[in-house]
Specification:
Two copies of one chain form a homodimer. The first copy, chain A, is built from eleven helices and ten strands. Chain A is an alpha/beta fold. In chain A, 39% of the residues are buried.
Chain lengths: 299, 299
């Protein structure tokens, strides 16, 4: 495994790996992360290792996707541990640029995906997704991967990036990978380290609310969008520390909102239930996808 | 020369050309155009032929860079003549997509370059450069060229695209090529066909104003930005049909405006004088670059 910190060396290394194949196909897989890696990231690296000849991991806490009052400065970092984990997972190239390498001057260019970014985290975190699409496009242009692996915990991010790739004809395939959870159900996140013991305990309500919602839909206990939302809010409300940012039931990947009175079994698309809830100063997100067949199961 | 009209065949053809080189460097040169080709475009193809192994010409009248009251529908088109010219200039691949091929659905993704796009044609044509950067990024992603050739008649376009490439780390080098003019000085443009005989005659005032401005600067006849602007406006004013959209003196490639009282010989950057002037319903642009050394010549 080699560690690269500048763009010229990165480009040259990838070029050499492709050239060495003498015209044969070399699949380059990219796993873009902000570091402080956990088993969720490990699952992305494993998927990349399985599907690619060359696995590139990028570690970069991207300032332009953080709002002015968000946790850019305090975002957890541990390069040594990250490198050990990457090595263990068989990563070939780790790209760890500084902010100055990625943004030598203030960037005048932004990529905006409209519509998809207006709801969920896009509404709570204005400008967040412009920062994500812009930095991911930069990483794509630097690495020129064939495949790029993203976790479904950031489901909106996956939908937004897929839209960007499609609209801009980017020569890369986005591979969404399943959410990885602790045994007790908490979705893995680098931000979980912020949680106090009590918050960590109460945060379990998120995965529980999602599981119960799924059962209620597949069993037909809830029939309308509004009932589903009410049940989710009630479950989350049982946690005294939970402060709801949003509870949304949308189509996936289009992220279109649904009429509150709509009957779930008349919806002819996959759905996503997405939550963002604060526990103390820590904002957690989680989601579950309901496939069309699942939503219609109780009919 | 082969003509390709869909994206999958284009990608495959480029891939094959690169693969055939068995790991050796293949320089792919792209000349993006809106067709109705003239000698200005031919000069781009010749530059591309000289510097590239594979020359790709794209012909696409891009709807999203036209405003609602602009000339998208009437923009001149002549595919047969364009193909003959491309063949003559040694183009390898011509890519001629339809609007449906480039935009299968409404695009949700836009690339915006701020600052550089707020003046000149960006001010007169709101949204124009978002359309240009977006379609050029799409073409770059489809062709993956090493070099891309653009005429300096659209100097602001060159500056904006260079900024985009730099900010997004696009793996392509923008090659600006000199303006090509008719013998009498009129800058070549597909839109020149719109001009009546009288308008065509009067449009010569643009290149004359730029030439006279250049002489005035290099000889020291005008000393301040304001004097230079006044002289340009006076010269253009001698044409009864000319309706000035803008006369701008800016730094290049930063396109920063200058204080009107500034002494030209104190400016430590290259400059550009850029004009947009309407003759009847036809809006023409032209420009001249003044290198720092030229501006300081009379000191």
């Amino acid at each position: 495994m080699i560690v690269i910190r500048d763009t010229a060396t990165l480009r040259e290394e990838i070029k050499q790996r492709r050239r060495a194949a003498l015209g044969a196909d070399v699949q380059v897989g990219l796993v873009p992360t902000m570091g402080y890696l956990h088993d969720g990231h490990a699952s992305l690296m494993r998927a990349a290792r399985k599907q690619s000849d060359v696995v590139v991991l990028s570690i970069f806490v991207n300032p332009i996707q953080f709002g002015p009052n968000e946790d850019f400065d305090s975002y957890p970092r541990d390069e040594e541990r990250d490198l050990a984990l990457a090595e263990r997972e068989g990563v070939d190239i780790v790209f760890i640029p500084t902010v100055e390498v990625m943004y030598p001057g203030p960037t005048k260019t932004k990529i905006q995906v409209s519509g998809l970014t207006s709801r969920l985290c896009g509404a709570s975190r204005p400008g967040h997704f412009d920062g994500v699409t812009t930095v991911v496009a930069k990483l794509f242009n630097l690495v020129q991967p064939d495949l790029a692996f993203f976790g479904m915990k950031d489901a909106q991010q996956v939908a937004v990036l897929q839209q960007m790739v499609q609209d801009l004809n980017m020569p890369v395939h986005i591979v969404p990978c399943p959410i990885v959870r602790e045994e007790d159900g908490l979705a893995l996140s680098s931000r979980n380290v912020y949680l106090s013991e009590e918050e960590r305990e109460q945060a379990l309500v998120l995965s529980r609310a999602l599981r119960e919602a799924e059962s209620a839909v597949t069993s037909g206990t809830v029939k309308q969008v509004t009932d589903l939302r009410r049940q989710l809010e009630q479950t989350i409300g049982t946690s005294s520390l939970a402060l709801i940012d949003y509870v949304e039931i949308l189509t996936f990947p289009g992220l279109e909102p649904l009429d509150e009175n709509m009957l779930l079994n008349t919806i002819d698309q996959d759905l996503i239930i997405a939550l963002a809830v604060k526990f103390g100063r820590t904002r957690l997100i989680d989601n579950i996808r309901l496939q069309k067949a699942e939503v219609h199961a109780y009919v």
